[in-house]
Specification:
Protein name: Methyl-accepting chemotaxis protein
Pfam families: MCPsignal
CATH class of the largest domain: Mainly Alpha
InterPro entries: MCPsignal_dom
Number of helices: 9
Largest sheet: 4 strands, antiparallel
Shape: rod-shaped
Structural class: alpha+beta
Number of domains: 2
Distance between the termini: 26 Å
Keywords: Transducer
Number of strands: 8
Oligomer: single chain
CATH superfamily of the largest domain: Methyl-accepting chemotaxis protein
């Protein structure tokens, strides 16, 4: 008979009901404390996330403030550069405009002069052609006069002495006609040279006129380029104005970011203070929970009959059974002590959540199921019964929680709980407690933000006086 049952048997008759009532109330108190501890733990986790988020927000605000400051500096530098560019362009545009205007005026004068010179050459050419016609007429007259003088000479010769004076006149007319013809020939030659020279001048004048026309066209294009340059100056001026307009909200943003950084810093400090208080509250609740667990142990050992007594007795009996089983296996040489207490956990490749094995995993897979599986039929409230070593390693779970892992980590976490290390407070306490039993109350995460209040009753497993771990028997509240 377990020690707790013996204690209950020797308790005074009048004292039993009172202790039992205290035990039940202590059990309910433990449940409430565990629930509060879980809620505080949740709040602590939320507070931690809030602290991280507040700190991240503060850093983001600082980075945004710094970026805005850099933007303001860049905008100031850009504005100064644009203003300088505007001044330079304004001066350049004015100078270019003056030069282009004077060049256009000069080209206009040159063009008009070239066109006038070409017109005058046309007039001279007409005059030369008139002189050529006159020269040709004179030459014709000279020929006819020469012919007339020749005829007069013939007639004077026929007249003899009577025509001697007429012959002298005829010879003089002939000489004059020869001179006129000679001069006419020279005039025609000179007029030819003049006409050729005038042709060259005319061709050059036409080239000059075309160049002048092109110069006027280029001057107009330069004037248009000057107008474009002036538009560029106006655009740069508008850019300066726009930068000034944009700079105002940027400066306001800098002020706003500074204020926001202060507020976020205060918020982060407040969250950090709240987290510190929650950590203290969590530690205090864990202490109170431990006191509640010790109080329950005290009541049971004092003989109090509680609703949890059957589960406590069952856990202690299974721990004794496994202790004897391990000791017998060591005695038979079925497994060595070094293998049984192996803590060199080796990862199962590809497992998620991570599973591990040791040198005793195959042994426990063989010997523990016959001890653990029948416990599930003891009471419908029992969720599982499994042995863990001192580090919370659970090598062999109940069959319903020992499914082969698949591709879904969430499904694996719920259905493949064997060969995993549960080193939370409940798991480590169950594996390391050497008290006759340990009754813990905790919230079991069911997934999706849902929790179920559970009680975990554990008892130590001893192998030849050496603490191996403990049996965990969990049941619903």
């Amino acid at each position: 008979m377990p020690a707790s049952a013996s204690a209950r048997a020797v308790a005074p008759a009048g004292e039993g009901p009172r202790l039992g009532d205290i035990g039940d109330r202590a059990g309910r108190l433990g449940v409430e404390i565990a629930d509060v501890a879980g809620l505080i733990g949740d709040l602590s986790g939320i507070s931690q996330n809030q602290a991280l988020q507040a700190e991240a927000a503060r850093r983001s605000a600082q980075e945004m403030g710094a970026a805005t400051s850099r933007l303001a500096q860049s905008m100031g530098t850009t504005r100064e550069a644009a203003a300088d560019a505007r001044r330079v362009l304004d001066q350049s545009a004015a100078q270019i405009s003056d030069v282009v205007t004077r060049a256009a005026e000069t080209m206009t004068v040159l063009s008009e002069s070239a066109l006038g010179f070409r017109s005058r050459l046309d007039t001279v050419s007409d005059t030369v052609r008139g002189v050529e016609k006159a020269s040709m007429a004179i030459a014709q007259i000279a020929r006819e006069t020469k012919l007339l003088a020749l005829n007069a000479s013939v007639e004077a010769a026929r007249a003899g002495d009577a025509g001697r004076g007429f012959a002298i006149i005829a010879n003089a007319v002939k000489g004059l006609a020869d001179q006129i013809q000679e001069f006419s020939g020279q005039t025609v030659a000179h007029l030819g040279e003049l006409t050729e020279a005038l042709g060259g001048l005319r061709h050059q004048a036409e080239d000059n006129a075309e160049a002048a026309q092109q110069g006027m066209t280029d001057s107009r294009a330069a004037g248009e380029a000057t107008a474009t340059l002036e538009e560029l100056v106006d655009s740069v001026g508008r850019l300066v104005t726009d930068i000034d307009t944009m700079a105002q909200p940027v400066e306001q943003s800098i002020v706003g970011f500074e204020a926001m950084q202060g507020e976020l810093s205060a918020l982060a400090d407040g969250v950090a203070d709240g987290r510190r208080h929650l950590e203290k509250a969590e530690a205090r609740t864990q202490t109170i929970l431990g006191i509640s667990e010790d109080f329950m142990l005290f009541l049971v050992e004092a003989g109090a009959e509680t609703a949890d007594a059957p589960f406590i007795d069952l856990a202690r009996a299974k721990a004794d059974e496994i202790s004897e089983l391990f000791e017998a296996a060591v005695a038979r040489g079925e497994i060595g002590v070094g293998e049984l207490f192996d803590e060199n956990y080796r990862d199962v490749p590809g497992s998620n959540p991570k599973q591990v094995t040791t040198r005793f995993t195959a042994f426990t897979d063989k010997v523990l199921p016959p001890v653990q599986e029948p416990v599930l039929a003891f009471d419908a409230r029992i969720a599982f019964c499994a042995a863990v070593d001192r580090n919370g390693y659970l090598p062999t779970h109940n069959k319903i929680y020992s499914q082969p892992q698949g591709d879904d980590p969430v499904w694996n976490a719920a259905n493949c709980r064997n060969r995993r290390i549960f080193n939370d407070r409940t798991g480590l306490s169950a594996g390391r407690s050497t008290k006759p039993f340990l009754l813990q109350t905790y919230r079991r995460d069911m997934g999706g933000g849902q929790f179920a209040l559970m009680k975990d009753c554990s008892a130590p497993i001893m192998v030849n006086g050496r603490h191996w771990g403990g049996v965990r028997l969990a049941f619903k509240v």
